[in-house]
Amino acid sequence: MYYPYFRGKQFDLLALTALLEKERLSRNILPIIEPVKNSNALKKLLSESQKKQHPFYLIQNPQSGDFLTAEGVDFLNSLPSANALIIKQPIETLDETPELLIVNESTPILESDWLNNQTAVLLPEEFRLLQKIKGPKILSQDVFTRLPKTIFYQEVPDELFSTTHLSYKKRGFVGFSDFSIDSRIYYEGGYPSPILSLHLVYFEGRVLRIHHFLSSEEAPSQQDKFFELMNEVTDWLKKLCGDTPTLGIQLLIDSVNIQKFPGMGVMRKAAVMHHLELMSRYLDNQFLD
After folding, report:
1. What interhelical angle do 264-283 and 10-21 show, nearest 10?
2. What is the biggest distance separating any 2 CA atoms in the chain, rounded to whole angstroms?
3. Cα(236)–Cα(251) distance, rounded to whole angstroms?
């Protein structure tokens, strides 16, 4: 099972909702949402997940954002979702029994009594934690290379993204997790860049790679940079998604067809949709090399 972790950003939530609406999200993918804002995008995702009966985990004690008050916690507890909890204290002292436990720091883990634990635990691959924790484990990895400046991706425009989907069971895990095309470090927004970028994963055989599509710096407008970047994406289309474009790629192609720059948020949404739909195809044995 694949458990992608999202920090509740608007366009990530919209990407999940769009995939649910079109039934392109595999039942083998159970997203984990750390909610940051009490937004319409979150409410729409909750509504669509109920409608499609596609479960996901909602973290009850997010580490930043709108839900850090007692009222915010009560509101999250009232929402229809499987509950996840970031471990901040020994687990035997918890007042509630979540469906998923999440490891962010080692001290409360090492102080906990894990002997009778049956709850799934999301954790990084750290030896002392793996030795201490009993019960089903989900491997959390930070696989996306986040660079401080977009132009730095020119140095290595294509790289390995992940092979964990091939090995997690052999390594003793019941599932695997990452942050999609994002990193473990939370940030509210990006910095303006003279170069547009689009980070798209693709399968090479059974190995998942990622290509960093970049515009030039010289194009006169954001729209021109987008069209320039999409010319390269079109050349890569079959490699990216075989004979059938993903919904995310099609969203970008539709923007080109109407001669419109969709905006950075929609580009982000499209890239997340593309990643999750490719993983859905793979996990459902529908991906064609």
Report:
1. 50
2. 62
3. 16
Which residues have CB under 8 Å from 32's CB, separation 6+?
A: 3, 4, 5, 6, 56, 57, 59, 84, 100, 102, 122, 177
Residue with tokens 């730095």: 152
Closest CA to 233 of 260, 259, 202: 202
**SS3 call for 12:** helix
Tokens of 62: 């997010």
DSSP 236: T
Q: How many residues does the chain have?
A: 289
The first and second tokens of residue 171, run together, are 């390594």
Give the model's confidence band at 191: pLDDT under 50 very low, under 70 low, under 90 confident, else very high: low
Q: What is the pTM of this model?
A: 0.93
Radius of gyration of the chain (CA): 19
- Does pLDDT of 204 surpass 80? yes
Count the Cβ atoms, other than its own, within 10 Å of residue 201: 22
Do residues 276 and 15 lie in contact, with contact meaning Cβ atoms separated by under 8 Å?
A: yes
Strand partners, 214: 197
CA–CA distance, 251 with 187 (Å, rounded to integer): 25
- Domain residues of the chain, as ranges? 5-86+141-283
Collapsing DSSP states into helix, strand and coil, what is residue 114?
coil
Taking the mean position of all CA atoms in its chain, how far away is CA 127? 25
Extended strands (E) in 78-181? 82-86, 100-102, 120-123, 137-140, 158-162, 175-177
State pLDDT tens for residues 68-92. Answer: 777 877 888 777 778 999 999 999 9
Of the candidates 177, 248, 181, the residue with the CA atom closest to the CA atom of residue 4: 177
115: exposed, middle or buried (C-beta count within 10 Å: 0-12, 13-18, 19+)? exposed
Crossing angle of the two packed helices 247-257 and 10-21, in degrees rounded to 10: 100
Amino acid at site 267: M
